[in-house]
Amino acid sequence: MRVCFRSSVKPSHIPEYRRRHAAVWPEMLRELKAAGWNNYSLFLADDGLLVGYVECDDFDAARARMALTDLNARWQAEMALLFENDAQAPDQGFVQLTEIFNLEDQLFRG
C-alpha cells in the first residue's frame, strides 16, 4: 500500500521542524520500521505544506501500532507545537490523499 498525506507546519517553525527531522531519535526510527512504515519520506514546502509518503501493508494498522508506544506519544507531543493545528497530535491530523496515477502500475498493466 502506498500512502500520501498532507499536513501544515507553522511557517515560523519550519527551521525547527527541519532541525528535528535532520536527526530523528534513533529509537523512533526503529519503532517506525517495526510498525511497518517503509520507504517513509516527508517533503516540506516553504509555506509550511507538509507532504508525507509511506509504503506499508495497512496504513491504519501501522498508525495504530505507533499509537501504542510511549515513544510515539512523546514525539507527537513535542512536535505538536510546530503544526498549524497544535491542539492534536500531528499524526492524527494527516489528510490522506488519493493516488490517481502510478507509472509502474500502468506499465505493468500495459
What descriptive keywords fit this protein?
alpha+beta; Alpha-Beta Plaits; 4-stranded antiparallel beta sheet; 5 helices; globular
Detailed description of the structure:
The chain has helices at residues 14-22, 26-34, 59-67, 70-80, 103-109, and strands at 2-8, 38-44, 49-55, 95-97. With 110 residues, the protein is of the alpha+beta class. It has one domain: Alpha-Beta Plaits (2-Layer Sandwich). The mean pLDDT is 95. This is L-rhamnose mutarotase.
The overall pLDDT, averaged over residues, is: 95
Proportion in helices: 40-55%
Question: What pattern of helices and strands is seen along the backbone?
Answer: EHHEEHHEH
**Strand coverage percent:** 15-25%
**How many whole angstroms does the radius of gyration measure?**
15 Å
Question: Which structural class should the secondary elements be placed in?
Answer: alpha+beta
Number of strands: 4
| Main sheet overview | 4 strands, antiparallel
**Can you tell me the number of structural domains?**
1
Distance between the termini: 20 Å
Q: Main sheet: which strands, in order across?
A: 2-3-1-4
Counted by DSSP, the helix tally is 5
- Please give the CATH class: Alpha Beta
Low-confidence stretches: none
